[in-house]
Amino acid sequence: MADLIDGKKISQDIKDEVRDKVTWLKEKKNIEVSLAVILVGNDPASTVYVNNKKKACEYTGIKSVSYELPEETTEEELLSLIDKLNEDKTINGILVQLPLPKHINEDSVIKRISPDKDVDGFHPESVGRLSIGERGFVSCTPAGVIQLLKRSHVEISGAECIVVGRSNIVGKPMAMLLIRENGTVTVCHSKTKDLREVTKRADILVVAIGKPEFIDASYVKEGAVVIDVGIHRKEDKKLCGDVLFNSVSKVASQITPVPGGVGPMTIAMLMNNCYEAAEMQNGIEAI
Ligand code: NDP
Q: Which residues form the Tetrahydrofolate dehydrogenase/cyclohydrolase catalytic domain (predicted)?
């Protein structure tokens, strides 16, 4: 039976570390870390996500400044708020909760956020920095996966790493991060010819496919480390991932559960990005 990789505990450790760093910045440098959170409309899931981010800010001592805008907000109005926040020296990070209402172009919004304040790591400049190995903001979910692996003492260097999924927010940055950690990386997607053949090679298998319980034990090598990024609500209201847990946990050596695996890491890494934004904007050496 595989050991569980405890994302709840690891994310809590990271939030505690961020809280210490935020306190240090305030006490020693008189700098308050702050995040502007913008929500357009009242999509229930987005409202829950935004509230969870605000709670994490409260816990870590990061000041959150909230902008709850009506559904009919125009793209111009949103862009001009972003311009104002880009200029505001008291704001370190800017987060626009996605998805946006259909009449607003998400790409234009993402590109308008200053790369210095892009704590979600979605701006093309952040993506470029990641690919050339320069310091910048990294998309929170894949950054969280790297922390799960490192803090569970999984050796990435030299490992055969297979990522299933190539989205801009998970699969692609995940692959870049694993390369940065010296993994040998293969990315699979819906056009991959024999998925099972490829995934069976993995020492580390990261699944971000967006299909409930798709990956069973037949896709997994004995002793592999399996990271399940997926999250779905089943008909019986229970949560599940992209991996069939009861099957894969019989062959893997370590595995993330859903819930309690990758999920809690995303917000913890967002908090860390906010701290790093304040650090970089104030020219402070990383502590
Ligand atoms: P997307 O739907 O954007 O991407 C899914 C990827 O999987 C695509 O690249 C697609 O290939 C590939 N894919 C789909 N079907 C197959 C198949 N049969 N075989 C091989 N590859 C396939 O999803 P996201 O990356 O946004 O999210 C993935 C999962 O992670 C979702 O369940 C989502 O809910 C979850 N998630 C969880 C987060 C968290 O905080 N825990 C954060 C973000 C996402 P192609 O490109 O060819 O279409």
A: 5-120
